[in-house]
Structures are given as structure tokens and as C-alpha cells.
Amino acid sequence: MMPAGGLPPGQHLTRGWPILHAESIPPFDPQSWRFRVDGHVEEPTVWTWAEFRALPPVTLTSDFHCVTGWSKLDNTWEGVRFREVADRARPRPGASHVLVEAPSGYAANLPLEILLQDDVLFAWSHDGEDLPPEHGGPLRLVVPARYGWKSVKWATRTRFLDRDVRGYWEERGYHNEADPWLEQRYSWQEGR
Ligand SMILES: Nc1nc2c(c(=O)[nH]1)N[C@H]1C(S)=C(S)[C@@H](COP(=O)(O)O)O[C@H]1N2
Ligand SMILES: [Mo]
Question: From the CA of 79, how far away is ligand 2's center (Å)?
Fold first, then answer.
């Protein structure tokens, strides 16, 4: 179900664009940057920056909700749909979940079915500007239907899995599903 948009329960509008991350910003060198897709796929693939930028681009507008309470509405992202990446790596029949990872080891887990939705992309631009390093540039995942911690900044690896493996915050007390419309904030709420 696609929610109408606006503010999910317990969220408030933010001014500006907060910056939130657990690690330090990794350096970006367009020559040595690589984007790796592996795990439960037929075609494990490595893209250079130039190769990734040559994938078919899309521009999508969506809202962003951080579990700490702020929401930023109407973000226009440009990048490549997750589905384009998956189409090229070709998930094996048993692939059910994905871990998207940053160089630090920060990761978020998501069901493949969520990532294949129309609104999910790897973004290099926000509101018409190159994505700044502090917001995940050169490339971040954007998953509008989940709390912001699943939108991994500085994404460089996508691992397809045949089971669910919890990511960084999911292992530290946050909800595995993280749907803001259901207020799935903390792991103690799971199974309720
Ligand atoms: N690699 C990485 N990605 C991350 C995080 C992080 O700590 N490391 N924090 C997440 C959280 S909690 C949120 S709310 C958003 C914040 O994105 P922003 O800093 O661009 O607002 O990034 C998410 N992606
Ligand atoms: Mo967050």
C-alpha cells in the first residue's frame, strides 16, 4: 500500500537538512571508487563510477523520515533505481533479502521485495545538486517507505541473501522492518 504522503505518526517537519551518521565521511576518488553486487546473484558485478553513471537515470520525489523524529518532505532525487541494478546482477531464485553496505561496515537490511519498488533508488543528486559528501555523496540508497537509517549513505556494496541478516541499527535495538506509517521504531515492538 502506498501511503498518501505527509507526516507519519510521531514525526515533525524539520527546517534545513539534518546530517546524521555514525562513522566519518569516507573519501571519494572517482578513479578508484567501486560498486559491488554479490551474494545470491547469477552475475556478481563490479561497477566503476563511470560505469555506474552510465546506467539509466531516473528522477523521483519522496519524503524522508528519521526515527529521531524529523521528516523532510518533497526531496527530489536523481540516480538509478535499485531494480536496474538487480536486473543486471540477476538475483537467484532463493534471494529474499539484501544488505546494503558502506565502506565503514555500516549496513541496512531490507527485503528484496521492498527494494524492487518504484520509489527506491541509489541517488547521486538531491534537489538538482550533486549529493554532498555529508549526505552520502557520491552515492546513497533512498528507501522512502522505511525510516531513514535504511537509506545507507556512501553505498558501495549490495549483498543479496537467501535469509534475513540484521544491519547496523537493527542489531542495536531498532526495528527490523522500520515502516514509519506503522511507527516501527524499536526492536521490542517486533511481533506485536
Ligand atoms: N553509511 C551510513 N548511512 C546512514 C547513516 C549512517 O550512520 N551511516 N545514518 C542513517 C540515518 S539514521 C539517517 S536519518 C540518514 C540521514 O541522512 P542525512 O544525513 O543525509 O540527513 O542516513 C542514514 N544513512
Ligand atoms: Mo535517522
Answer: 21
